[in-house]
Amino acid sequence: xxxxxxxxxxxxxxxxxxxxxxxxxxxxxxxxxxxxxxxxxxxxxxxxxxxxxxxxxxxxxxxxxxxxxxxxxxxxxxxxxxxxxxxxxxxxxxxxxxxxxxxxxxxxxxxxxxxxxxxxxxxxxxxxxxxxxxxxxxxxxxxxxxxxxxxxxxxxxxxxxxxxxxxxxxxxxxxxxxxxxxxxxxxxxxx
Length: 191
Ligand SMILES: [Zn+2]
Prior knowledge:
Blueprint: H1 2-6, H2 13-17, E1 34-47, E2 51-53, E3 56-58, E4 62-64, H3 72-84, H4 90-93, H5 106-119, E5 122-132, H6 142-153, E6 160-165, H7 171-174, E7 178-189
Parallel strand pairs: 5-6
Antiparallel strand pairs: 1-4, 1-7, 2-3, 5-7
Helix pairs in contact: 3-5
The structure holds zinc ion.
Residues 41, 43, 66, 72, 75 line the site of zinc ion (ZN).
């Protein structure tokens, strides 16, 4: 059956599996049509610092120790975007030794990172972010976080997933010593 399907003229199953807007699974530049990336980041928490998560200030007694504003999931998202195109990592592009980035709003880092992605001819299909934090509960902030990330990336909020979990009181996140975040992105070559 598969042999017959392969020889099916235009409109058959082969066409149905092609990405939208292209004739081939590779672009003219020879780049892959789709690229996937993942990112991971950790920050220690300390009392008296602001807790910024996906661009939203979360009310809490602790915040991230960081050279920037310590927005852990946005850093993971930057690494996922860079990783998808094998462009290195956030530390390479925005070194934490640089005064330029001291206290910087991580939305700026994300915007600059996505600029590199777009300059390479790629557009975000979707992003999925998981935040690991014992407390406080951030469910009330999730929709606002999705909107902030979508606005920075200029995409629909439906393309941005933000999820939160605890580590069941285990490990450094469970002891409320830190926050970690994972991000996965899919990019589409749009040129
Ligand atoms: Zn970070």
